[in-house]
Amino acid sequence: MKIAQIAPLAESVPPKLYGGTERIVSYLTEELVRQGHEVTLFASGDSQTSAELVPITDMALRLNPAVVDTIPYHMMMLEQVRRRADEFDALHFHIDMLHLPMAHDFIGRTVTTLHGRLDLPDLPPFYRTFAQHSLVSISDHQRLPMPPVNWGGTIYHGLPADLLAPRLGAGEDYLAFLGRISPEKRPDRAIRIAARSGLKLKIAAKIDAVDRSYWEREIAPLVDHYPNVEFIGEINEQQKAQFLGEAAALLFPIDWPEPFGLVMIEAMACATPVIAFRCGSVPEVIEHGVSGFIVDSEDEAVAAIAALPDLDRRRVRAAFDARFTAQRMAADYVALYHDLPGARTDAARLRRHRGVEAELQIVA
To answer: Could you tell me the sign of the dihedral formed by the alpha carbons of 258, 185, 239, 21, in that order?
Structure first.
């Protein structure tokens, strides 16, 4: 198939450091290319891909201090997509909602993966207005606040099977917290849980400008107070394998309707069990007693740490291999592309038509 992948421009594809959506777009794009599809990626110019790259900006918008408003750049990208839309058998958007009015002319060949939370009050009336667009959820729980819409399916994220090597030893005597410093991620819980367990906690996390005051007011004092806590900051993909792989467990103490939670399957790929609070997608991702423990309180989390020796890290990795590889993710999306009402036919007919015109011109 000839497939367009349309990525957000905040981060490169893949991102240099933090960035879940762009990372998944990269894994999906590369796996589709590996499987023999002809893929065009619309993204920032500093993206790295084996697909055809259509660079919209020189660099990821988050890295450009001159950028004040990101919407004009996304509008520029959508104009590029609109001009080339007839070339593709399927167009896969990862930018939430900006494209939906523009995509009516080729709606039968489009699918949109919703990567964020959907429990915000402004979203139901919007998606009710555009209810005919094919949407993909990244967990079943993510769908719950939505009005009736055209769900194409739930497709879980996946990672390349060889991206993060499993470490099958017992793990070192520290707990890992990986992601973003924000109230809904609850690093304060992670700090208290680690302190009660007697284990060291290593925090590898990004601090966005919007969360800077939360860090300074709530979390930095805890980091300073507890001698067992080490704040590392943002880490890259290479550092992530060691950081997660050598941990006794990943703490995922969230307090919000997590749409998926990519870090959970990253830990599983490293054969590192996950101790996660029962929120959002967690019960869909973690198999309790196999790939980790699902808990409802800090007391239960401390008890789960004591039970970590009961888990077989080989089974943690096996749970990842069975459900969360990029190969499986790409296969699920290709099946969905084929099911789109306008997929393959319109674009294929146009390409054949253009081919006939070219042949006639040569003959003439």
So the answer is: positive
Give every CB contact of residue 195 below 8 A, 6+ residues apart in sequence.
201, 226, 228, 229
DSSP structural state of residue 133: S
Q: Report the 3 state secondary structure along 286-299.
A: CCECCCEEEECCHH
pLDDT value of residue 356: 46
CATH number (3.40.50.300, 3.30.70.260, 1.10.220.30, 3.40.50.2000) of 2-160+326-363 reads 3.40.50.2000
CATH class of residue range 174-323: alpha beta
Q: Are residues 353 and 54 in contact, defined by beta-carbon separation less than 8 angstroms?
A: no
Dihedral sign from CA coordinates of 10, 13, 16, 20: positive
pTM value surpassing 0.70: yes
Residue recorded with tokens 């919209």:
56
Say which residue the tokens 């992601």 belong to.
179
Could you tell me the CA-to-CA distances from 140 to 115, 130, 252, 275, 358 in Å, in that order?
Answer: 12, 20, 19, 21, 47
Quick: pLDDT tens for 266-289. 999 999 999 999 999 999 999 999
Regarding predicted confidence, which is higher, 250 or 351? Answer: 250
* Residue 32 contacts residue 41 (beta carbons within 8 Å): no
- pLDDT confidence of residue 294: 98
pLDDT band of residue 63 (cuts 50, 70, 90) is: confident
> What DSSP character marks residue 325?
B
